[in-house]
Design brief:
Blueprint (H helix, E strand, L loop, with lengths): L2 E11 L8 E17 L4 E5 L15 H11 L4 E7 L10 H16 L6 H16 L7 H6 L2 E6 L4 E5 L5 E7 L5 H6 L7 H20 L2 H7 L6 H4 L6 H10 L4 E4 L6 E5 L2 H18 L3 E7 L6 E4 L1
Parallel strand pairs: 3-4
Antiparallel strand pairs: 1-2, 1-11, 2-4, 2-5, 5-6, 7-9, 7-10, 8-9
Length: about 300
């Protein structure tokens, strides 16, 4: 039977002010998945690394979307998925989304590209619900579409790809886990109107900044007055890292998804490397193990190679 290899990239959700509506695809890190088309109706999930991922497809972020695809296809086929996870679960850079998006993109390719990208997002969101209890597309959409995406609506699904300038992204992943479901539980249920107005202005400014290649506007708009003040308390050294990275030349940044990863945008690689050194120095001083990445925006999304 046919088999493909998938590179499913990490993503940065929210982009500071765009909670659940903005996301960005990264070139590194990425998961590697082998997906095989079977001649019987079943989904088999296994791990090629040390992560204890659920083998029950209904409980797996890659498996649940594939079960949904089988419900629509109605043919005597199935899928076997082997996951080599390079994006640590709970890292805040789209680990569950990479599994979900990678599996549905592979399945669609093996079936002859019968589904649209919007369909793939719809399927993959089922994997996000397995992971966090909520269907959201701010990691899924950029993983499938590439680049930066705006999710104007979930019901009905309305995804808008956003042009973006060439930027460098520095990410630090402190080796603690912040579960998306837990990070959602601590959020305020009500928001002051003045805060909502300020947040709307920042979201509009950030989207306009990307479209216009206006780096100063992007930097001014990377402000969150609703989510970050609450979630940042879960991340050691967050305030110092953000302040010192901006002093080192970063345009701005904040929490990646639900954390604990922190991302910063820079105009050039030299600045991005300086930002990395700042992050390393702070976490070395705190004594917290961490992973660092200097990468760029991935405009392709999930990459498929036939074996």
């Amino acid at each position: 039977m046919k088999q493909v290899t998938i590179h499913a990239p990490a993503t940065v959700a929210n982009l500071v002010c765009g909670f659940d509506v903005l996301g960005m695809c990264l070139n590194e890190p990425y998961d590697i998945m082998q997906v095989k088309l079977l001649d019987k109706r079943e989904v088999i999930i296994s791990s090629a690394d040390g992560y204890n991922l659920p083998s029950d497809p209904a409980l797996n972020t890659a498996g649940a979307p594939l079960l949904s695809i089988l419900e629509e296809v109605k043919e005597s086929i199935g899928f076997e998925v082997i996951i080599n996870k390079q994006i640590k679960p709970g890292s805040g850079i789209g680990s569950s989304a990479a599994s979900a998006a990678g599996s549905v993109a592979a399945a669609n390719h093996l079936l002859g590209d019968i589904f649209s990208k919007e369909d793939l997002v719809r399927f993959a969101m089922i994997g996000e619900k397995v992971a966090s209890g909520v269907k959201h597309a701010d990691n899924i959409s950029p993983c499938i579409y590439g680049g930066v995406t705006l999710i104007r609506s979930i019901f009905p699904l309305d995804i808008v790809p956003i042009p973006s300038p060439s930027l460098y992204v520095t990410v630090v992943h402190p080796q603690i886990e912040v579960r998306t479901s837990d990070a959602r539980q601590i959020l305020r249920k009500e928001v002051l109107l003045k805060d909502a107005i300020r947040q709307w202005g920042n979201i509009g400014g950030l989207v306009a900044g990307f479209i216009k290649n206006d780096y100063d506007l992007i930097g001014r708009s990377l402000e969150d007055v609703i989510i970050e003040p609450v979630r940042s308390m879960l991340i050691p050294g967050f305030d110092e890292i953000k302040q010192q990275c901006k002093s080192a030349g970063a345009m701005g940044g904040g929490i990646s998804g639900s954390g604990p990863s922190i991302f910063m945008l820079s105009r050039d690689k030299a600045t991005a490397e300086n930002v990395k050194n700042v992050m390393k120095e702070i976490y070395d001083r705190i004594g917290l193990a961490h992973h660092l990445y200097v990468t760029t925006i991935n405009h392709e999304g999930v990459k498929i190679t036939e074996d």
